[in-house]
Design goal:
Blueprint (H helix, E strand, L loop, with lengths): L3 H4 L8 H11 L4 H15 L3 H4 L4 H4 L2 H21 L8 H12 L4
Helix pairs in contact: 3-6, 3-7
Length: 107
Amino acid sequence: FPSHDKKGSSFKPDTSETKKLLSARLKKYSIEDCKKVIDTKVSDWFKNKDSKKYLRPSTLFNESKFESYLNEAKEKISAFEISNGNATYKTLEQQQEELYRQRGYIQ
């Protein structure tokens, strides 16, 4: 499960349920889309004990919620670039790293 390191979970990437959820999303979306959803929800929910419990495959890759989470991720990336007055292109990873630093998730 890609967010294991980010959130300290004990979810296994090779369980049948996780594989089923990811396979279903990968029929319509890319791996990068899945990473965007994970990164966005980790940044939203990780420090909140009430929402942190939702950082699990069954929530992140749920068919009825995934597209809205992905749209939210895309909006946040655009807002992040605009709010910083950034005129140069940055990869998603660079943007997320800056955001994590600003929020104190990493040093």
